[in-house]
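Running co-folding for copper (II) ion.
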Amino acid sequence: MTTRRGFIRTGGAVIAGLALPAWRRAPVSAGAVVEIAMRSDPAGSKVWFDPVGLLVEPGTTIRWLVKENVHTTTAYHPKNGHHSLRIPEGAAPWDSGFLVNPGDHFDVTLTVPGVYDFFCMPHEAAGMVGRLVVGKSAGPGALPFDYFKGRAGTGDWLPVPAAAQQKFPTVERIVRERTVGGS
Ligand SMILES: [Cu+2]
C-alpha cells in the first residue's frame, strides 16, 4: 500500500474488470479514485463519514475530503495511538493528521485485500468511523471488536468505543450494497 497526498495518478484502470469473478465486480475499478466526505453539522454536534461503508477493488485510491469541521482519517492500528488492529496484517497504517479546511483531502491506495476500519481522531468517541472492504472479507477488521482479548502483545491496545462500534455497517451489508451512506 502506498500513501500519497494531493495528486492522483491516472491510468492503471486498463485491466480493471478483466476476468474477475462476478462477486468481485464492484462498481469501483482498480486505479479509480473514490471519495469519502468528512462531514459535520454547523454546531459540530453531529459528525460522520459519507459513505460510511464501501466495497472497492484492490488498487483503488480512497480520497477523504473535508466538507465541514476539522477531521482526520486514521487507520485502526496499534501504531496509531495503540488502537486495536482492524486492517489487514500486511497493510500499512495511515494517519492523515488534522485536515482543517474545507477541500483538504488525504489519499490512500489500498492494495492488500481485506477489511479496513478507520476513525477520526477528534471524533472517534462521537462515532465518526468507517469501514472499507477491499476485494473480500478478510483480516482482523472482519473479526469481532474484542477478538484480541487475552492475546499476547495486545495488552495496551485500545478497544473501539461502544458508540463507534454501533456506527460500522456490517461487512455483509457492505458486500451486499457496495456503498452504505453515512449520517
Ligand atoms: Cu471528525
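Result summary
The two ends are 29 Å apart (CA to CA).
Residues 47, 71, 120, 122-123, 128 surround copper (II) ion (CB under 6 Å).
Job closed.
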